[in-house]
Amino acid sequence: MCRGTSESSKIHFRILNRKDGLPVKSAYVDEGTGEPVDAEDQVKGFETDKNDFIQIEPNEIKALKLTSEHTLEIGEFVPLAEIDTRYLEKPYYLIPADEASVEAFNVIREAMKNKRVGARSCVVLYQRGREVLIQPFGKGMLSTELRDRNEMVSEASVFEGLQRQDYDPELLEIAGLLIGKKATKFDPSKFENTYENALIAMIDAKRKGKKPPTAAPRPRENVVDLADVLRKSLAKEGISGKSPAGRRRKSA
User: Fold this and answer.
1) How far apart are alpha carbons 98 and 109 in whole angstroms?
2) What is the pLDDT of residue 201?
3) Which of 79, 152, 178, 223 is most deeply packed, by most CB within 10 A?
4) Which pLDDT value is given to residue 13?
5) For residue 169, which of 247, 250, 249, 251 has the smallest C-alpha distance?
6) Distance, CA of 163 to CA of 183 (rounded, Å)
7) Is the pTM for the entire model greater than 0.85?
8) Mean pLDDT over residues 72-99, rounded?
9) Which residues have CB under 8 Å from 212's CB, separation 6+?
């Protein structure tokens, strides 16, 4: 299994001492004595009560690992259309373990592809058993870590205060026309990390002794005519629409 993501393109910072500009190191310090604790003297602990810990040794954690770290056991198959994408986390590429397993790998992949299903399994990743979703992907398969149900915040608790509001049907029609005009294929090559690009521009300017670029000013207007915005967007795209009565709303 090979990780399907990389952070090599991200900007990474070091912490420096402002006085001399040199990097500083982090260290684990004993809360009682204030002295640094060497790695061989460090042990994991679970706090059962305030300042009351149970020590957990590395070999005890290792003993809890699943029996096999290299074999995927399928728990069940689920329709891909029914998968809640909020639970999808980190992707990994899957390939056959050896030549002997290539045929079985291909047969399972094609059968899953034909049935439009994914397989749920559990694997050991970074010393922890993790639920994963396996699905066909190109010539191989994709295994994606799944978030635990307890990690998810219920949408009901967030959307509870939202009230259903009436809207102008003509605005909905114009919005539909605009969406249809803008519809395209999903293309990650068009993604742009504006924050990362701004960091690079700032670092480059400071390296050259120039003044860092300033951020674009925020729009002054806090009230917009939604109907007018939709009509102008349609006109820009070469679509003629009706002229529904404007509805004024505050922008976010």
Assistant:
1) 16
2) 82
3) 178
4) 84
5) 247
6) 29
7) no
8) 88
9) 201, 202, 205, 206
